[in-house]
Amino acid sequence: MATVLKAAVREDLRGSRLTKIRQQGNIPAVVYGKKFGSKAVSVNSIDFIKTMRQEGKTGVFKMDIDGTKTDVMIYDLQYDTLKNEVVHVDFYAADMNVEMDADVPVSLLGEAQGVKDGGVLQQAVYELSVRALPQELPDQIEVDVEKLEVNDSLSVSDLTAGEKYEFNNDPDEVVVSITPPDEEPEEPEVETDEEPELVDAEEDEASEDAEEKSE
After folding, report:
1. C-alpha to C-alpha distance for 104 and 107, rounded to whole angstroms
2. What pTM does this model have?
3. 126 near 155, Cβ under 8 Å?
4. How far apart (Å, rounded) are the C-alpha atoms in residues 172 and 177?
5. Are 92 and 33 in contact (CB under 8 A)?
6. What is the DSSP letter of 52?
7. CATH topology for the 99-215 domain
8. Domain ranges, ordered by start, for the chain
9. Model confidence at 196: pLDDT above 50
10. DSSP state of 198
11. Where is this region: Disordered (predicted)?
């Protein structure tokens, strides 16, 4: 069964109204697109979280706006980090017949051989820009790192795009690399004073004093 997220149009756009919407368990949102225009709505917070977990950030699903269904996808989220909750959502009304660009998460698969040998894995890119029809956008870009050894790296050009999407990033952009382990710096040799000579000098002074007293 296709996912349908219900939304209600927001007529009152005052800031005080947004607080009341959140107190009622809803999330203020905006839906926009080239053909759709722009419309302020609100969605139930629990229903939205379920939809986001099921469809992912790049998934296309139906939004029922007061009885009218529209194909949408999550474009941007605003979080309250203190409360750990979503406080605003931007939805993109997708034209299913027109390609679009979207940022897709990068997921690393496996444990690199270089890491087993003591190297350090460095992930330089966590999202890649992808162009495709809305329904063909991948949920994530999987990158197999098992064969990477120390000093190896993978660039965008090394990744295999899907049959129905392409990467927008620079082909030479490094996605992940294995760097050598940190080498501990050698402790510098510390030159110490030759204390025996000082001791000898003290002993010589003591012996001279003793000789003077004996005389």
Report:
1. 10
2. 0.70
3. no
4. 13
5. yes
6. H
7. RNA Polymerase Alpha Subunit; Chain A, domain 2 (2.170.120)
8. 4-95, 99-215
9. no
10. H
11. 165-215
Q: Where are the beta strands (DSSP E) in the chain?
A: 4-9, 26-33, 37-44, 61-65, 68-80, 85-93, 100-109, 120-123, 127-132, 141-144, 153-155, 165-167, 174-179
210 vs 95, higher pLDDT: 95
Quick check: helix, strand or coil at residue 203?
Answer: helix
For 4-95, give the CATH class.
mainly beta
pLDDT band for position 188 (cuts 50, 70, 90): low
The answer to whether the CB of 93 falls within 8 A of the CB of 70 is yes
> How far apart, in Å, are the Cα atoms of 187 and each of 181, 183, 184, 190?
18, 12, 9, 9
Query: Is the pLDDT reported for residue 99 higher than 60?
Result: yes
Query: Which position has the token pair 């012996």?
Result: 207
Let me know if the fold of 4-95 is the same as that of 99-215.
no
Which residues lie below 8 Å from residue 17, measured CB to CB, with a gap of 6+? Answer: 10
Q: CB 105: neighbour CB atoms within 10 A?
A: 15
Cα 190–chain centre separation: 45
The alpha carbon of residue 147 and the mean position of all alpha carbons in its chain are separated, in whole angstroms, by 23
36: amino acid identity, one letter? F
Are 61 and 72 in contact, with CB atoms under 8 Å apart? yes
The helix/strand/coil state of 122 is: strand
The token duo for 4 is 């349908």
CA dihedral 114, 120, 103, 128 (to 10 degrees): -50
Strand partners, 106: 141
Q: Which residue type sits at 61? A: F
